[in-house]
Design goal:
Length: 123
Amino acid sequence: MTNNDDLEKMIKAALTGQDREILEGTEELGWFALGLKQFSGKLGWVTWVLMVVQTTMFIAGAYFGIKFLNASELLPAVKNGIGSAVLLLMATQIKMSLMPQMQADRVIREVKRLQLLIASHGT
């Protein structure tokens, strides 16, 4: 049984010019590279908007959290605490909404790799 690196070498050796170029675009990306790739492409603008909104909510949540910790009376503490909790939870939810897209990109990349592998063995 060969490991992944040997398999990759065998696939690259079996491919010619254009197929090899296509394969270069299907290599598995690391976590950060995959996350940064979300900012490009047709839907990159959506990621930019989500990150601006998420960052704004996080900063506001941190601000209300500090006000909560510094409050000396009960009512302002409750108002700021609830506001902080809601904003921080919403910021987290927005950030987590990008994870399924990252996973879908990984799956699509692997399907392209498999299509290329099948095409190269079919000829």
